[in-house]
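Please, structure for the following, as C-alpha cells.
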Amino acid sequence: MTTPRLSRRIPDLVPSPIREILAVIDRPGMISFAGGLPAPETFPKLDLSAVPPECLQYGPSEGEPALRQAIAAQLRDRGLDCTADQVLVLSGSQQGIDLVAKLFVDAGTRVAVESPTYLAALQAFRFFGADFAEFEPATPAAIAGAAFAYVVPTFQNPTGRCLDDAARRALAAACDAEGVTLFEDDPYRDLDYTGGAHRPVCADLRAAPWIYQGSFSKTFAPGLRLGYLACAPEFVTPLTRLKQAADLHSNRVSQWLVLQAFGDPRRGARLREFAGWYRERRDTFAQHLARHFAGLARWELPPGGLFFWLELAAGAALDTRTLLAPALERGVAFMPGEPFHAVEQPRGAIRLNFSHAAPDDAGRGLGILAEIVRDAVARL
C-alpha cells in the first residue's frame, strides 16, 4: 500500500485529553468531573415549529444580521465599543480559537498564554507551530514580542479565578505599550456567583488591536455549537475569509434559536436563575471537598464558572496524570492539571467540574478520588 503524503503538521496533531476522557463518561455508573459540561437540567425546551424556511438555506458567513446586531448591542453594554460589522458568528467558540491561530501563527510564532490556561487553545496554537511564552496577567511583562496574548480573565478555565480591575488595567496597558494584540476569551461571564461587574479587558485598550469572543454553550445549549467573536476592524475581512474556507457559515437554525432567546423579556431573569442554580451546586461541591480533601489539597471557592482547581499538598512530587487510569477504573473521571500548561510537567494540580454530576454522586466520586490520591501519596 502506498503511504499517503500528509501535511508536515500532522505529526504534531495530538489528541485532546478532555475528548478522550469524555469518550468514556457514558459508561454505566461513571461520575464525571472532567469536561466543562453544563447540567442538562438547565437546557431550554426548544420549539422548532416556527423556524422560518429561509433558515434552511445557505446564509451569510458573518452570521445572521439581526443576531450580530443583538451581540454588538450586548457588547456595548459591557463597555466594548463595536458595531455589528465587527461581529462574526461562530460554530462554537472553539472555532474562534482555530481561526485566530490560522490568522496569526506560523512555525515559531511567539504566543503569550497564561499558565495554566484553556488546554484546547494550547492544542490549536501548538498545531500551527506556536512558541509559547507564559505570563501572569497581573504582571504581564512576558507578552513583549508576542503576536498576541491569549487570556481568559473572567472565571478562567481551568482555575476559576477572575482578574480584578487592577490586573485588567495592567494587562491592557501592557498590550498597548508593546503593540500586542489581545485575544480575550470570555465564555463564562454569565455564570457569576458574586454579582460583580467584569469589564472586558479589550474595553480598556487604547492602541493595541483586539479580538474578543464569547459562547452560547454555557447558558443556552452546547449542542447548538454557537459562539461569536468581535474584533478590531483590521481583522474582520481576513477572519471572515478564513471562516468561509472552514464552514461557509454557522448553523442558521441555531442562530435563529439564540436570537429568540435574545428577544425573550425573561432572558435576564433566566440568566440569574442559572447562576443561582449553579451557585447551589458549587456550594454543595465545596462541602464535599472539605469533607474528603481536607489536608490533601488547597483550593479557593470559584466566584463563577464551572471549575474547582485543586493544588495537591504533595505538589510536583505527584504527577496527576498517573491518577487518571485508577480513577477511571473505579468509575470517576477528572482532568489532570498538567495539560493546562504550555510546558507539561508534574505540577500536582487537578481540575474538577462541579456542574454536571448530581450532588450525591459528586460526594461519592470525590470520596473515591481522595482515596486514590492518598494511596498515590503513600507510595511517594
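Residues 316 and 347 are 4 Å apart (CA to CA). The chain has a mean pLDDT of 92.
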